[in-house]
Design goal:
By secondary structure, the protein is of the alpha+beta class. The protein is built from 3 helices and 4 strands.
């Protein structure tokens, strides 16, 4: 199954986010130790270019695994994330068009 994950962060978290970014990137690289495959993702910015959160397109076995991935992210564990939204994408989502997933498939 494919999911759109949107994580909004608490305001003014730049310093804390920077401190946890290496662990966050490792979490993404490993798919949360196999919970999900991150096909693509990026930071979300406000109109002034300040960090607002992050998004990702995930492949996971089910909603529980997608949620476990999102909740286990070091950004969330550090209290940076204010809210997590997971939306199921349709069965005909064209994931094959994303040619270089951020998490290698096993």
């Amino acid at each position: 199954m494919f999911f759109l994950m949107r994580c909004l962060h608490h305001a003014q978290q730049d310093i804390v986010r920077d401190a946890h970014r290496p662990a966050h990137r490792e979490w993404v690289r490993t798919g949360g130790d196999g919970l999900a495959v991150v096909l693509i993702g990026s930071a979300l910015l406000d109109d002034a270019g300040n960090g607002l959160g992050n998004f990702g397109v995930l492949e996971a076995a089910d909603l529980d695994q997608a949620r476990a991935f999102a909740e286990g992210d070091p950004f969330n564990q550090a209290g940076i994330v204010a809210s997590i939204e997971l939306t199921v994408l349709p069965d005909n989502f064209q994931a094959h068009r994303i040619v270089e997933p951020m998490t290698p498939r096993r």
